[in-house]
Amino acid sequence: MRPPAAAAIHPTAVVDQSASVSETASIGPYAVVGPDVEVGDRVQIGPHAIVERDTRIAEDCQISGSVVIGADPQDLKYVGERTWLEIGPRTVIREFATLNRGTAAAGTTMVGADCMIMAYVHVAHDCRIGDHVVLSNAVNMAGHVEIDDWAIVGGLTAIHQFVRVGAHSMIGGASRVNQDVAPFGLVAGNPAAAYGINRVGLARRDFDDVVVRELKGAYRALFQADCPLQEAAGRIDLDAACDEVQQLVGFVVSSERGITPTRAGGGAAGDVPDLS
Question: Which one of the listed residues 54, 60, 126, 180 is annotated catalytic?
Fold first, then answer.
């Protein structure tokens, strides 16, 4: 990249000499861009934002005022090793959000493309956020959380470390999530409970009606079975299933923390209302 145009950087902003800033990017008043930061084309960094160090921001991202990203991980095992934060193109990060770099365990905290990270969200060290993910206001994630593409997390939700959140799922606001969230599903509550498939979200993304019916049947087969979830997953005929059902079953089988049940302490899906 060439040196940034003088007009693109407010005179009160501080940009480290080792930072690489696109000439089409803009940096607002009193913002700080630290060492070894890469700022892509047309990135907008708002007033008082801080990009501490070792962060790569892809093209067309919007970093709002008072955001703090690229800070040291909040992990007692971190001893100063060099790690990174990577943010994909067209992602929006709103006011007062904090995104930390990784640790030696993974090396990088990653946020995908076209994400919306709303105000006061915290993305901890070594998290993996897919594409088109929405994290609503004040979502707080512990370390090593993985959120797959198109997932939506409601505001004020806390997510335990190492939890995986499947693609196209939705987590209701003010939830406490300490187990994996199955793809295409809807969970909510404290502690979180599963409420069937995310029908509204799937409809908005133009999923075929046949696929939605197969997913609904697979959810019933998994969550209404009279046996452990892993055993129920083994009963589903994957050879006759659509790709989405295969993805769902594969996620369940590979879960290490266990899947969010239909209600606290287990129980059949019929024990809770279907809010999907």
Answer: 126
